[in-house]
From TrEMBL:
SUPFAM superfamilies: HAD-like. This is Phosphoserine phosphatase. Keywords: Hydrolase, Magnesium, Metal-binding. CDD domains: HAD_PGPPase (cd02612). InterPro entries: HAD-like_SerB (IPR050582), HAD-like_sf (IPR036412), HAD_hydro_SerB1 (IPR006385), HAD_sf (IPR023214). Its EC number is 3.1.3.-, 3.1.3.3, 3.1.3.41. It comes from the Bacteria. Pfam families: HAD. GO terms for molecular function: hydrolase activity; metal ion binding. It comes from Moellerella wisconsensis ATCC 35017.
Amino acid sequence: MTTKIAVFDLDETLIQGDSSVLWTHYLWDKQIINDPQFIAEDSRMMAQYNAGILDMPAYLAFSMQALAGIPTEQVDIWLDDFVNTIILPNIYPAARQCIDDYRQRHIPVIIISATVSFIVKKIAAKLHADFAIGIDMQVINNSYSGTINGIASFKAGKVKRLTQWLSQQRVSDAEIVFYTDSANDLPMCYFADQVITINADPRLAEIAMEQQWTQLQWKI
């Protein structure tokens, strides 16, 4: 029996903005980060992400320095505030409706993102997604480190992580509907049975037109 599953990218797909960037600026506003060079370097590396050339392990090794030595419990407190004050106002209303429609039809909803999992899971819970997959970071001495634990859910890694999840759930025949904004997700697009782009970047929009994928524009 075929199991239909709705899989969503997170940043710029379900929310207006990139949660990693928004998180960095939240930490800056709270003066947890106080070095302007950190913000500048973060912006430089995110530009590499948008260009499809980011070295994800290097980026995470850099960005996670902001939380070095901070207990995970404290990070969790900040995350609750961050999601409530910054993320929730930036969730596309159409995204909420789309997820609710799938849930009403008893179709599992997965959010899969190249953002660290402790952020992804918080947001996914607010959206009532059934499962969330992000990049897992090793925890050392009760603090998040800059070392990736397992396979990073980035580019082809998203396909690997989703395949792992399907195996764990004992789903042998899945029909995947995938939503994304980014050409970084082309491996997932080609893996999926149906692709729907949301506010697609130029490269993805061009390929979507060639492949005759549905293209949507969502706004706040």
